[in-house]
Every structure is written in structure tokens, then in C-alpha cells.
UniProtKB/TrEMBL annotation:
<feature type="transmembrane region" description="Helical">
    <location>
        <begin position="32"/>
        <end position="55"/>
    </location>
</feature>
<feature type="compositionally biased region" description="Pro residues">
    <location>
        <begin position="1"/>
        <end position="12"/>
    </location>
</feature>
<feature type="region of interest" description="Disordered">
    <location>
        <begin position="1"/>
        <end position="21"/>
    </location>
</feature>
<keyword id="KW-0812">Transmembrane</keyword>
<feature type="transmembrane region" description="Helical">
    <location>
        <begin position="130"/>
        <end position="152"/>
    </location>
</feature>
<feature type="transmembrane region" description="Helical">
    <location>
        <begin position="67"/>
        <end position="85"/>
    </location>
</feature>
<keyword id="KW-1133">Transmembrane helix</keyword>
<keyword id="KW-0472">Membrane</keyword>
<protein>
    <submittedName>
        <fullName>Uncharacterized protein</fullName>
    </submittedName>
</protein>
Length: 161
């Protein structure tokens, strides 16, 4: 009876001749889409744009750029509408649902295609990008935009009538 091969201990460093994961360094497309629930659909779309560029898919990157532009316009339009329109329950409800609706439209319009493509090309074995820098950058942009929009709201409230 033959002995099974001896396995290295669990905490052993990887061997020098172990091949690195194949493919470009990408953000996990599914995780990027999920982060859009907390941060913004724009966040998800920008990361997918950068992934398409890393994959060398120029046509998909161009499509992703169009989505980024459209999402930014829709989000800014909604924010400005909240500033200039008188407060109402309907507008408040609409503004709360716009982000989720845009994320769902983006995901089924183009985001899901990247998840499918990456899974078909690499499965789960591709090098991953970290999340700290993009998440902190998104949070900084959200805070900065909140200050700017808050200032615009104050200015709008005190405009001459």
C-alpha cells in the first residue's frame, strides 16, 4: 500500500515554484457591485470601468464609461432637485429609491456581464486588488460632496425672492 504524499503544514509559506494566479489584477466584480449599495452606484461603475481596462476590453470599457457619466448625471440631478424643489414626502421617497434603482439598472444593464466574463476567464483564481484605497476615496468624495451640497442648499434657502 502506498503512502499519500506529505502535505505542507497549514501555516507554511507558499513554495517558490508555486505559480501566481493567472490574469490581470482586478477588483472582484461582485464585491464592487455590492459596495454600490453602501457608497453609490457610481462607485461600482468606476471600478468595473477600471476592471474592463485591465482586461484589455476597450469596447466594454467605453460602455462602462458611458454608464459612469450617466450615473453621475442622474445622481447629481437628483441631489440638485432636492435642493431647489420644496420639501415633500413624495420627493423624499423618490430620492431615497433613486440610488437603489440606478444600481439595479446598472447591474443588469452591464455590471453582471463583467462578473460572468471574469468567472468564465479565471474562475476564482485571479489576483485581486485591495479595497482600502477605493473605499476611503469614495468616502472622502461623499463627505466633500455633502459639504458642497449643504452649502448650496444654504445659499438656495437665503436667495432673494
Amino acid at each position: 500500500m502506498t503512502q499519500p504524499p506529505e502535505l505542507p503544514p497549514i501555516d507554511a509559506p507558499p513554495s517558490a515554484d508555486a505559480a501566481p494566479p493567472a490574469g490581470p489584477v482586478l477588483w472582484n466584480p461582485n464585491a464592487a457591485a455590492a459596495w454600490g449599495l453602501l457608497l453609490s452606484p457610481v462607485f461600482s461603475a468606476v471600478l468595473h470601468l477600471m476592471n474592463w481596462q485591465a482586461l484589455g476590453e476597450a469596447e466594454k470599457a467605453h460602455e462602462a464609461k458611458q454608464w459612469v457619466i450617466g450615473l453621475v448625471a442622474a445622481m447629481l440631478g437628483t441631489m440638485l432637485l432636492l435642493i431647489v424643489w420644496p420639501e415633500s414626502r413624495a420627493l423624499d421617497t423618490l430620492s431615497r429609491s433613486v440610488g437603489v434603482a440606478l444600481l439595479v439598472a446598472w447591474y443588469y444593464g452591464t455590471g453582471k456581464a463583467q462578473s460572468t466574463r471574469v468567472a468564465a476567464l479565471y474562475g476564482r483564481g485571479y489576483p485581486r486588488r485591495g479595497w482600502i484605497v477605493p473605499v476611503l476615496a469614495a468616502l472622502a468624495l461623499i463627505v466633500g460632496l455633502s459639504f458642497v451640497l449643504g452649502g448650496l442648499d444654504e445659499l438656495w434657502q437665503y436667495r432673494p425672492r
